[in-house]
């Protein structure tokens, strides 16, 4: 049975890590489960201070390993608070519960909050639910993002934590967007975080980021942002290479699109601006991006008659035969000429099929005259 005291010599010895004094007091008959008015035991104190030898001595003499304070904290919670992996291990050896009811103070959430990755990993290895969601805190990943604990975020994701499971409708990405760590944003997006999800207030992660902050720029770089128009589009239209480079260096996303899904690469290719197209592609522009009327950058390059842009796009994986014949590059090249551009398209299409697969060209949804052209008939 617990005994009550404001604070005992045993508490003091445990809190200060004085092992000899602690053993002497126990030998004199001091109750190891003596608690304060807040139900704090000497074991709580030893674990909060990370004093593993004192904690072990108390446990060996009958200290309650799962004792609760008035705030619902166990000695294991305190060990995670201090970041003492040694104390965590000793407590688990003596039967500490690694995961408690949701209304009690959660050891894993405390370990993550304070960035104690080793303690977190020990708990997970002891079957703590990696997706445990506490109403006021969320999941461990959500807490790690809230407190910008990059090491914990990375390890949780590596161990399979759900990248979009946070606190109710608030995702870990929402939590990260409110903070300042671009590294956390990048980790979440690399693991497939959904940038379109909205929280209970109807906000996306991007809408929570501070305007013009590095976090906002990082989010913009990871999604196709729809806008009426952008300075990047204008630079691509007019072939202003220096302006284009400057905008990209400032963080403008190269895949920003209009309401009609027109990208800066579409515009550069439509005007035959090879250098602008090359810079956009080198920074990750999507070579097969489609407008709402099925036009690809390659289609636009065929409109402009720019063989250089056509070559560039094909070298970077542009599809010569589109998903829809409503905007077929070779049809457009045939319509507009010159002959050399038609020949270039034919060469690239034949190359995509391979010399042993040319017969499959007959299966394309193309007019017969174009099929004969592709087959050199």
For the structure shown, list the relevant keywords.
ANK repeat, mainly alpha, Ankyrin_rpt, Serine Threonine Protein Phosphatase 5, Tetratricopeptide repeat, 377 residues, ubl conjugation pathway, 50% helix, SOCS_box
User: Major sheet, described briefly?
Assistant: 2 strands, parallel
CATH topology name of the largest domain = Serine Threonine Protein Phosphatase 5, Tetratricopeptide repeat
Tell me the domain tally: 3
**Helices and strands, in N-to-C order?**
EHHEHHHHHHHHHHHHHHHHHHHHH
Estimated share of beta-strand residues = under 5%
What is the number of helices? 23
Architecture (CATH level 2) name of the largest domain: Alpha Horseshoe
Task: Determine the oligomeric state from the structure.
Answer: single chain
Spans of at least 5 consecutive residues whose pLDDT stays below 50 are none
Radius of gyration from the alpha-carbon trace, in angstroms: 32 Å
Helix content: 40-55%
What is the H level of CATH, i.e. the homologous superfamily of the largest domain? Ankyrin repeat-containing domain
Distance between the termini: 98 Å
Principal-axes shape call: elongated
At the first level of CATH, what is the class of the largest domain?
Mainly Alpha
Q: How many strand units? A: 2
Mean pLDDT across every amino acid position: 86
Class by helix and strand content?
A: mainly alpha
Strand order of the largest sheet: 1-2
Summarize it.
Helices cover 50% and strands 1% of the residues. It has 377 residues and is mainly alpha-helical. The chain has three domains: 1-128, Ankyrin repeat-containing domain (Serine Threonine Protein Phosphatase 5, Tetratricopeptide repeat, Alpha Horseshoe); 151-223, Ankyrin repeat-containing domain (Serine Threonine Protein Phosphatase 5, Tetratricopeptide repeat, Alpha Horseshoe); 231-374, Serine Threonine Protein Phosphatase 5, Tetratricopeptide repeat.
């Amino acid at each position: 049975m617990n005994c009550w005291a404001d604070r005992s010599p045993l508490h003091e010895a445990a809190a200060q890590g004085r092992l000899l004094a602690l053993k002497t007091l126990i030998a004199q008959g001091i109750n190891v489960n003596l608690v304060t008015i807040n139900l704090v035991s000497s074991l709580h104190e030893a674990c909060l201070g990370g004093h593993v030898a004192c904690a072990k001595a108390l446990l060996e003499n009958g200290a309650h390993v799962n004792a609760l304070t008035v705030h619902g904290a166990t000695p294991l919670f305190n060990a995670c608070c201090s970041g003492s992996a040694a104390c965590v291990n000793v407590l688990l050896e003596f039967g500490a519960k690694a995961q408690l009811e949701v209304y009690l103070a959660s050891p894993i959430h405390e370990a993550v909050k304070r960035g104690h990755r080793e303690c977190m990993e020990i708990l997970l290895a002891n079957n703590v639910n990696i997706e445990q969601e506490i109403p006021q805190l969320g999941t461990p990943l959500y807490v790690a993002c809230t407190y910008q604990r990059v090491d914990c975020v990375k390890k949780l994701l590596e161990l399979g934590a759900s990248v979009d499971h946070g606190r109710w409708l608030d995702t870990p990405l929402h939590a990260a967007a409110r903070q300042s760590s671009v590294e956390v944003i990048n980790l979440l997006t690399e693991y497939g975080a959904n940038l379109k999800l909205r929280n209970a207030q109807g906000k996306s992660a991007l809408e929570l980021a501070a305007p013009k902050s590095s976090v906002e720029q990082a989010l913009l770089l990871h999604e196709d942002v729809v806008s009426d128009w952008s300075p990047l589009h204008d630079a691509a239209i007019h072939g202003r290479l220096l302006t284009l480079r400057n905008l990209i260096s400032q963080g403008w996303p190269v895949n920003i699109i209009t309401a009609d899904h027109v990208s800066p690469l579409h515009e550069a290719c439509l005007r035959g601006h090879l250098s602008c197209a090359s810079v956009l592609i080198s920074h990750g522009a999507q070579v097969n991006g489609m407008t709402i009327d099925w036009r690809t950058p390659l289609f636009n390059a065929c409109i402009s008659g720019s063989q250089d842009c056509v070559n560039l796009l094909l070298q970077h994986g542009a599809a010569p035969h589109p998903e829809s014949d409503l905007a077929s590059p070779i049809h457009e090249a045939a319509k507009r000429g010159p002959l050399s551009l038609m020949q270039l398209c034919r060469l690239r299409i034949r190359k995509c099929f391979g010399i042993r697969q040319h017969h499959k060209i007959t299966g394309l949804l193309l007019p017969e005259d174009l099929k004969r052209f592709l087959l050199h008939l």
